[in-house]
Amino acid sequence: MSYFSDLGLAEPILRALETKGYNDPTPIQRQSIPALLEGRDLLGIAQTGTGKTAAFALPSLHRLAADPQPRKPASCRMLVLSPTRELAAQIADNIKGYAKNLRLTVDCVFGGIPIGKQARRLVPGVDILVATPGRLLDLIDNRALTIGRTEIFVLDEADQMMDLGFIHALKRVANLLPAKRQSLFFSATMPKSIEDLGKQFIKNPVRVEVAPQSTTAERVEQFVSFLNQPEKQALLSLTVRRLLAEKQLDRGIVFTRTKHGADRVARNLAAAGIDARAIHGNKSQAQRTAALEAFRQGSCPILVATDIAARGIDVSGVSHVFNFELPNVPEQYVHRIGRTARAGADGVAISFCAPDEKPYLRDIERLTKVKPDVMPLPENFLADAARLPAPARRPAGEENEARRDQPRGRAGGGRRDGGRQDGARHDAGRRDGGRRDGGRPERRDDRSQGGDRVQGERAHGDRARGERTGQDRGRGGPRPEGGRSDGGRSEAARHDAGGEAAAKRRFRPRGPATTGQHRNKVRRVV
Hints:
- Helices cover about 40% and strands about 15% of the residues.
- By secondary structure, it is α/β, with parallel strands linked by helices.
- The radius of gyration is 32 Å and the shape is globular.
- Belongs to the DEAD box helicase family.
- This is DEAD/DEAH box helicase.
- Keywords: ATP-binding, Helicase, Hydrolase, Nucleotide-binding.
C-alpha cells in the first residue's frame, strides 16, 4: 500500500484498497492517477484486464470526497458512460467497493428494465452515475435527470462508444455537459481516426499508453484450426468435451458473430451433454444477468456470446476463449481473447477459420503481429462428429421469445391466415389444386386468406367480392345472410360440381342487388 499512500489518497479509500488486497498499482494506474489528481484530462490506452476502472475511479473518488457538496435533485457529480449493460453494472460494483467507506452514493442505469424505478431513484440526486448512452438520454428526455452540474465525465471503451452507432448520442451528451469539467477516455484500442474524433470531447489530454495499440496479452496461447463452416460445431463440441474430461478447461467463452448463431451453438453444445448458456442483445436483462452469474459461479462452464460480452466483462478463471467465427473487425479479436489470461493468469485462444474467413485472419495477424499456431483436426474427426446427437429444435422459452418479438395485433402475428407459415399455405394450395372457387386463381393479398376462418365468420364473404356461383346466377336471388350458396360444401366438392360454370370467366355483378351491400355493416368500436 506504500505507493497508494504516497499518492495522498484519502484514508477511507486506502482502507477499501487494503480490504480488496490491492498492494501494488498496475502500469495504467501508476501513470494515470497522478495526472488525474491534478485535474488533467486523460486519454488512456491499455489492454483489457489491466485495472482501468481503478485508474479513473480512485482519483475521482478522492476528488469528490475532498470537496463534499449536498446532492442536487435529479443530477450527478460524476458520470461514467459504458457501451454495454454488463460492463456498466461491473463498473458500478467496483466503484461501490472503492467508496464503501465514503459518504458517496453510486447508481447504475441501463436499458432492459423499467425506467420508472430508475427515475425515482434519481429524484434526490446521486454522486456517481454509471449509465449506458440510450438509457441516459431517455432519462434526460423524461426530465428525470440533468447533467449540467457534472464535474467528472468518464467514457470507457471509447473506441466503440464513438463508433458510428454512438457518435450522435455522444455529441448530444457532450452538448449537455458543462464546459468546465474533467474528461477521461479509456480503451484497449484507439485507432487514429477515433482519436481525432475524441479531441472534440477532451481538451489538452495527457496520453497514457502502457502497451502498443491492439497487442494481445502475452500469456495467451493462440491457435487456429482450418475447416469448413459446417464442421465447426462438431469440432467445438468434441474439443470442449475433451477439455472438460481432461479437466483442462475451467471456464470458456465461445464467441459468435450473430445472435441466432449463439443460440444455435448453445443448443448443439447442450445436445452433446455440455452445459452452456447464451448471452446476446435479444435476451432479456434477467436472462443475461442469470447466465452471467451462473458462469461466474461455475455452475455453467461455457458461455456463448456475441461481441456484447467482449468488452470489459471481468470474469475470473476463464481459461479458454473459442472464436467460433472470426470477427470481421480485427480490433474485436483483441477484446475477445482479452477475456482470458487476466490478472497474471495463463489462457488459451482457439479460432475456427473457414475458407472465406482467411482474409479476416490475415487482418488480425497484421494488426497483432502474432501468427497463431495451427491446430490440426483430431483423429477420427468425421466418425466422432457423425456420432454426435442432433440438437433439439427450439426450447419453449426461445419460441415464446420469438413470439413476443412478432408484431402485436391478431393472433398469428397479425396475419388473417391464423398464423400459418408460407410453407403451410403453399401445401394447402397444392391440395386444393392450386385454385379455389372453381378454378379462379388465388389472390396473393391478405384478403384471400379467409379460407382458414370458421365459416360463420364470413357473413358476406363470397358475395362481397362478386363470387356468385353459376347456380346463384341462375336463380338470380340473393343468398341467405351469413350462409354460403353451395350449402357449406367443401372446396373439393364445389370444384368437382362446378364444371361448366367454373370454366366461364367470372365477373363482378353490378346493379341493385349489390348496391350498398356493406352500408352500415362496419363494426364500430366505441
